[in-house]
């Protein structure tokens, strides 16, 4: 069996095995050259022929790599043999990395597929996943998810390398909000560095403002002092590993000042805001309704939705047709209260897309109540203060609902007579009894 048979049966093509780091002119010009027969002998058979196919353990691959490096040095400079040994050395090192990853995966599979730590519910993410670049929240290093597996929290999306999973110090944002389901209502309640002992609020490494900016100056500096960064959400100071200058909308600024300008926050604060942005946790300052016209309009629309809900939620045809699920499940907190918002709600109001959505929902529900459903239409009212026999509802414009008996009449009729006939009948009945 000659060297040509060895190459076709046991090797990938040189072009396939070559990496971006070895795309020199010599490599490209000789990519189709067969391995010279003179380099195959009993001493280097594993290195040349079977190194990438049968040597799957790290020990075998390390031996093959050392032997291949020796052959590179012993071969003649710029010769065909040296070019092939260099290519084989690169391929062996690539196989070694794959073998290490495989051993790590096997170890993790034997130990546990998932575990809980500091409130995080970690699951093991197998490779390969999407090509989107990911970063470890523990060491800030890149997670090469095409060739690396990693852990990810199912609650807050915290990601880390397998080797970093045992040295975590950040509590899960989901657990933090479960224990205290409220945003900080003060705008950046700054805490002095001296109060923190000049240490990062999360990992306790030494920090100061009188150091070079950024993460890499800290890595390669002669001191162990990192740049201090202020979190605009909770007012604490962090190191670059725990504070990536990620911009986020601050709930307190929205609640008090209607300010949607993103501010730089720590990773912990960013994860907390991200997982809670759809939850109804914000109660706005009452003064904002006087300064923001959209808020007053939307408050009125939400009150009307609450009245419509009384019809839809008890209507069997709407429940059977799924109307409730289709319409009321969209941010269902909007119909339970008129004063509580989620951060997503307020962002949509600020961008101008919220009002059109809530009006479209109203039109669907109104059409069902007043036109499509005889049951809901039969639960309407006829004004007792005038001769008009039109069926009216509490969510209609220009209507008035009695706060005592919830009877509905025209607003103009109420303004003229200021009397509710239903309340009068109740009073007369009580007097007779």
Automatic annotation (TrEMBL):
PANTHER family: DIFFERENTIALLY EXPRESSED IN FDCP 8 HOMOLOG, PLECKSTRIN HOMOLOGY DOMAIN CONTAINING PROTEIN. Keywords: Metal-binding, Repeat, Zinc, Zinc-finger. One of its GO terms (molecular function) is zinc ion binding. The keyword Ligase does not apply. InterPro entries: C1-like_sf, DEF8, DEF8_C1, Multihaem_cyt_sf, PKC_DAG/PE, RH_dom. Belongs to the DEF8 family. Residues 119-172 form the Phorbol-ester/DAG-type domain. Pfam families: RH_dom. CDD domains: C1_DEF8 (cd20819). It comes from Nezara viridula. This is Phorbol-ester/DAG-type domain-containing protein.
